[in-house]
Amino acid sequence: MSATEPVPVAAAAGIAEARIGVITFPGTLDDRDAARAVRLAGAEAVSIWHADESLQDVDAVVLPGGFSYGDYLRAGAISRFAPAMAAVVDAAKGGMPVLGICNGFQVLTEAHLLPGSMVKNDHLHFVCREQSLVVENAHTAWTNEFRRGQRITIPLKNQDGQFVADERTLDELEGEGRVVFRYDGWNPNGSRRDIAGITNERGNVVGLMPHPEHAVEPGFGPASAEGPRAGVDGLTFFTSVLSSLVHA
Amino acid sequence: MGRVVVEVMPKPEILDPQGKAVVGALPRLGFTQFSGVRQGKRFELEVDGEVTPEILAAAREAAATLLSNPVIEDVVSVADAAAVPGEATGTPVNA
């Protein structure tokens, strides 16, 4: 094992000017981790409060996980009407990369930026585990540095993680290659067709239930072939978006 | 003071994990008559004046946009509490 400090990947590649916003809603939990992941990838993390109407000219936005508004009404249902979300919807329609993680994914479905919805896990238990996923689409703004068929491991932790949509929507997602991640080996929550993450038609908006921002630094991630807590598969989400910004 | 009652249920085709948990618990108390439970939500929207057709229309819109998510839920009723027998005072039936 190397004892050297982690070198921000994109900074090493000379693309360090990108600014990525991280939105905090009341009840968001993982905004600090998401901002740290952004910095480790080599970009500047910009904090955005849910009541802000401006996204401060960021190049991409992350909606982190947590329990915004205590999951009252439905997970993500109240956050979806936050002033910052109006700006996110506009920016997403203009092609800005948007990543929704866990509760952020729920907010994106409530905001109709992604189809379907999440309901309570089929077994009713909160799940917290290191989850293996298969990458199904390596062409989105957030997954272009993965390979199709690649298996990655990142943490999964939620109560309302069961992805549901009607059969027509599911067929459309499959037919258009918009399933981005599928649960590998075991479906942890009853999600339709083992779907863990999806994207929009354009590939700039991605939502998933598992947490890439918790697998970005050796010593603090899931177990990997390199050793316990060595997994950094989540970092590729953040380096992918930087490379998509450079090539945009 | 008026009140509009909105009721929202999970769509029939969506598995309702909470209802499933409840139906599993009923027999433990001896309630063996019930073969299924679905759990929904009831909202009471209060207005200062009486419930006019415009208020009801606004309540229907709120029900469709915020109180329910059409992907997983149906709005099964939006009604003026004063027009529903036993609803006017909101008195619990076990009182």
From TrEMBL, chain B:
<keyword id="KW-0547">Nucleotide-binding</keyword>
<keyword id="KW-0963">Cytoplasm</keyword>
<comment type="pathway">
    <text>Purine metabolism; IMP biosynthesis via de novo pathway; 5-amino-1-(5-phospho-D-ribosyl)imidazole from N(2)-formyl-N(1)-(5-phospho-D-ribosyl)glycinamide: step 1/2.</text>
</comment>
<dbReference type="InterPro" id="IPR036604">
    <property type="entry name" value="PurS-like_sf"/>
</dbReference>
<keyword id="KW-0436">Ligase</keyword>
<dbReference type="InterPro" id="IPR003850">
    <property type="entry name" value="PurS"/>
</dbReference>
<dbReference type="Pfam" id="PF02700">
    <property type="entry name" value="PurS"/>
</dbReference>
<comment type="similarity">
    <text>Belongs to the PurS family.</text>
</comment>
<dbReference type="GO" id="GO:0004642">
    <property type="term" value="F:phosphoribosylformylglycinamidine synthase activity"/>
</dbReference>
<keyword id="KW-0658">Purine biosynthesis</keyword>
<keyword id="KW-0067">ATP-binding</keyword>
<comment type="subunit">
    <text>Part of the FGAM synthase complex composed of 1 PurL, 1 PurQ and 2 PurS subunits.</text>
</comment>
<protein>
    <recommendedName>
        <fullName>Phosphoribosylformylglycinamidine synthase subunit PurS</fullName>
        <ecNumber>6.3.5.3</ecNumber>
    </recommendedName>
</protein>
<comment type="function">
    <text>Part of the phosphoribosylformylglycinamidine synthase complex involved in the purines biosynthetic pathway. Catalyzes the ATP-dependent conversion of formylglycinamide ribonucleotide (FGAR) and glutamine to yield formylglycinamidine ribonucleotide (FGAM) and glutamate. The FGAM synthase complex is composed of three subunits. PurQ produces an ammonia molecule by converting glutamine to glutamate. PurL transfers the ammonia molecule to FGAR to form FGAM in an ATP-dependent manner.</text>
</comment>
